[in-house]
Amino acid sequence: MAKPPSKRKKDTSATSNNLRATASSAEDIFDPENPATATITVTAAEVEELSETEERDRLHLERRVERAFFEAGKALAELRDRRLYRSTHKTFEEYCGSRFGYTHRHVNYLIAASNVVDNIIMGTNGSQNEIPDEMGTIGSQNEISDEMGTNGSQILPTTERQVRPLTKLEPSQQQEVWRQAVEQAGGKVPPARIVKDVVQRIMERTKVPNTYQIGEVCQILVKDNPELRGKGGCWGIVNHVGEFSCTVRTWDGEYTVGLQHLKSYNYLPAECEQMLVICDRIGRVYSGALEESVQKFLEMLGKLNRAYLTALETKVLSLIEAERK
After folding, report:
1. Region Disordered: what ranges (predicted)?
2. Domain boundary among 153, 186, 206
3. Which residue would you say has higher pLDDT here, 260 or 126?
4. N or C end of the chain: which has fewer CB within 10 A?
């Protein structure tokens, strides 16, 4: 009796037949005795092109992602400057931590970064334009609505970390450093590493020791810094000392100021403490919702070149405090 063919041979035969069928149907060359010589033709899958509308939507959404840090910084600065947190929180720092989970340092980074981007754009465009925001209202910010990252021929930052090293420099230096960083990146958005390297070279040439101390009262000198517009002659209290700048607290917020834009009043420690009390009192009552004459009075107190209030100034401030309560 003949032995039935083994299952192994049957399977092998079936596999060979399938391979031949596959090769034949695909018009490929396949030799089962020598698989290494097989030639297989692969047909490329057709890639679906985006429509003109889809291409425009994609670009718009990409720009929204890229400019997210900028929009956050501008919004936080307005929340702080207008004290829109005052109905629920005592301080801006407490509000940001509770509402957004942001640390005080992170908030400062975002606000400073948005100012740097404003300055970079201003250096190229030479002016600011009013544009509608996402809600359709008019805002006073640079026209970067759909151009964040590629404003025509201008390359703009896309992350806060890219511009963080620039916050230590003057506006004109920020613009030049960014231009050099873009060149080094081959005309593309430079990573933070390249920006930091360029900034380091600038600082090594212009290094000035910072002798200011926390709690010291200084006068703000605007000179040619557009970020300090409206703050000329105001006094501020140093609450952070950096290598090339100080963060000063004024009656209406905090500002990072280069050393060349500060002048110490050389007050005694007791006078500095008195100015801190005055700063706290003005900050608690100042608001854009006040009558213009009251606002002007508080702003005038913010430019005093003495470490005390007169009796009449004290009475008027006390009256405003009582009304605000």
Report:
1. 1-35
2. 206
3. 260
4. N
